[in-house]
From TrEMBL:
Gene that encodes it: scpB
Source taxon at top rank: Bacteria
InterPro entries from the UniProt entry: ScpB_csome_segregation (IPR005234), WH-like_DNA-bd_sf (IPR036388), WH_DNA-bd_sf (IPR036390)
Organism of provenance: Pedobacter rhodius
Keyword annotations: Cell cycle, Cell division, Chromosome partition, Cytoplasm
Any Pfam family the entry gives: SMC_ScpB
PANTHER family assigned: SEGREGATION AND CONDENSATION PROTEIN B (PTHR34298)
UniProt protein name: SMC-Scp complex subunit ScpB
């Protein structure tokens, strides 16, 4: 097996790993893919090559040995910039009430606030307002019922945020309901 091929596969493994990956895990993955056996010395040589590649000033990331494993991390010079992104994203977290409201809107859209509140059993003013501010839902006109209440639907940002191409990709109740949560016998 050419050394540069092994090096690229190791780089891909480290890149795709959420946490540090150790040499034994790398060897197991590579041996499962390649017909010839990969040994520790080959892995360490490739790791050194990857480290040298990312140690140049032309990259914002580096390969770091952490907890007996390897992981790509941002170089210290960029920590403040990355920190700003994390702060911004942390402000976008949704409360349980907002998630419940968003789920109701996603599955029942277009829906009025009154219908949301009837399902949830509590006032949903704040949750709806927060979801509008975060642009996860949008106003889709007015209902043809008395009082002409506002109709809410999910936005395109909702689709991006949850990685959906269309609403049919939302999980269905049958996909997430556990059989142990049912009562009695199932009718056939």
């Amino acid at each position: 097996m050419p050394k540069d091929t092994i090096t690229r596969h190791i780089e891909a493994l480290i890149f795709s790993s959420v946490q540090s990956i150790n040499v034994q895990e790398i060897i197991l993955a590579l041996n499962a893919v390649f017909e010839e056996e990969i040994i520790e010395t080959q892995v360490f040589e490739s790791l050194d090559e990857i480290m040298q590649k990312y140690n140049s000033n032309n990259t914002a990331i580096e390969l770091v040995n952490l907890n007996n494993g390897y992981q790509f991390l941002t170089k210290k010079a960029y920590h403040e910039t990355v920190n700003q992104l994390q702060l911004h994203r942390s402000k976008k977290k949704l409360s349980q009430a907002a998630m419940e409201t968003l789920a109701i809107i996603a599955y029942r859209q277009p829906i009025t606030k009154l219908e949301i509140e009837q399902i949830r059993g509590v006032n949903s003013d704040y949750s709806v307002q927060r979801l509008l501010e975060k642009e996860l839902i949008s106003i889709d006109g007015k209902a043809e019922t008395p009082g002409r209440p506002i109709l809410y639907t999910t936005s395109s940002l909702f689709m991006d945020y949850f990685g959906l191409n269309n609403l049919s990709q939302l999980p269905q109740l049958k996909d997430i309901a556990k059989e142990e949560n049912t009562i009695g016998e199932a009718a056939e």
